[in-house]
């Protein structure tokens, strides 16, 4: 007798019944649903939360930058992002990193055509910004390959699962920068309130080893 697929309600409520494997089309649907829910629930970061998060990232990156300078003899290229409305704002962090002189170069994401990886362009305080796709902004500076990526997100889970805006930009970018077998040098950044019990993960999704929030730097299973 042919067995019929489990009802969608079971896939949603109890994905473990499928051995953690959810068909790709179901994952896409789940993500759309979660994106809509999280969009509605989203709160704009308070200045105190934003500052705490930028301080935490600065502290972590400072150590990374010093080690990198010692090992490689050059500045650590940090791939950051200009904020979209309602997102955590990394601009205070970018200004601070740029102020540390030879330890860091800051490069910001340029939103490239759909289906491609992001490109990163050198930013310095006062750099002219140009309007890009989906309301994003990027500088006109030279293209640089980030050594470490700061990854925006809509929702995250304790395993490093990340939900974004649905363009697949960061999964493509992470896969290009850090091929399988290499450590994923990336930190997600978000508020604690953006944490969800489970982000559905598809075959292209890259788990984040660290998520920085206003409360803590969370190391996830992907860090080990
Ligand atoms: N600040 C910031 N820059 C970023 C990202 C991000 O998440 N944050 N991206 C992360 O990948 C890339 C841009 N990706 C995007 C992909 C799709 C849509 C998009 O479809 N927007 C819908 C509204 C989505 C919603 O609000 O739920 C739209 O414009 O209609 C936006 C950004 C690169 N730059
Ligand atoms: N490395 C990849 N190669 C091919 N397709 C990919 C890759 N990464 C993601 N995709 C495809 O891109 C689409 C969107 O992916 P997903 O829903 O994970 O986006 P997202 O991570 O939320 O978006 P973003 O990173 O832009 O914020 C999916 O159809 C997914 O299969």
Class from secondary-structure proportions: alpha/beta
Strand count, sense and barrel status of the largest sheet are:
7 strands, mixed
By CATH, the superfamily comes out as: NagB/RpiA/CoA transferase-like
Strand residue content = 15-25%
User: How many structural units, i.e. domains?
Assistant: 1
Outline: globular
Helix fraction by DSSP (H/I, runs of at least 4): 25-40%
**Major beta sheet, strand line-up:** 3-2-1-6-9-10-11
Terminus-to-terminus distance: 43 Å
Tell me, what is the CATH class?
Alpha Beta
Unreliable sequence segments: 1-19
Q: Do you know the CATH topology?
A: Rossmann fold
Short description:
It catalyses: (6S)-5-formyl-5,6,7,8-tetrahydrofolate + ATP = (6R)-5,10-methenyltetrahydrofolate + ADP + phosphate. The chain has 224 residues and is an alpha/beta fold. It is built from five helices and eleven strands.
Describe what this molecule looks like in 3D.
The protein is α/β, with parallel strands linked by helices. The chain has one domain (48-151, 167-223): NagB/RpiA/CoA transferase-like (Rossmann fold), CATH 3.40.50. It is 30% helix and 19% strand. It is built from 5 helices and 11 strands; from the N terminus they run H-H-H-E-H-E-E-E-E-E-E-E-H-E-E-E. The strands form 3 sheets. A 7-stranded mixed beta sheet has the order 3-2-1-6-9-10-11, with helices on both faces. A two-stranded antiparallel sheet has the order 4-5. Strand 1 (76-80), helix 4 (91-99) and strand 2 (104-110) form a beta-alpha-beta unit. Helix 3 packs parallel to helix 4. The model is unreliable at 1-19 (pLDDT under 50). The structure holds ligand FFO and adenosine-5'-triphosphate. Residues 31, 163-172, 175, 202, 204-205 line the site of adenosine-5'-triphosphate.
């Amino acid at each position: 007798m042919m067995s019929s697929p489990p009802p969608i309600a079971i896939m949603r409520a109890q994905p473990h019944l499928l051995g953690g494997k959810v068909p790709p089309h179901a994952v896409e649907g789940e993500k759309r649903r979660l994106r809509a829910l999280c969009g509605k629930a989203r709160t704009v970061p308070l200045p105190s939360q934003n500052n705490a998060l930028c301080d935490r990232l600065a502290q972590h990156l400072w150590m990374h930058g010093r080690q990198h300078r010692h090992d490689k003899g050059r500045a650590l290229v940090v791939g950051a992002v200009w904020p979209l409305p309602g997102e955590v704002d990394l601009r205070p962090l970018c200004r601070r990193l740029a102020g540390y002189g030879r330890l860091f170069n800051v490069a910001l994401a340029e939103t490239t055509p759909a289906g491609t990886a992001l490109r990163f362009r050198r930013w310095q305080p006062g750099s002219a910004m140009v309007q890009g796709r989906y309301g994003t902004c990027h500088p006109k500076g030279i293209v640089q390959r980030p050594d470490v990526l700061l990854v925006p997100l809509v929702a995250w889970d304790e395993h490093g699962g990340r939900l974004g805006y649905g363009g697949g930009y960061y999964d493509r970018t992470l896969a290009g920068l850090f091929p399988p077998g290499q450590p994923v040098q990336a930190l997600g950044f978000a508020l604690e309130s953006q944490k969800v019990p489970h982000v559905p993960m598809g075959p292209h999704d890259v788990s984040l080893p660290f998520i920085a929030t206003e409360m803590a730097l969370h190391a996830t299973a992907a860090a080990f």
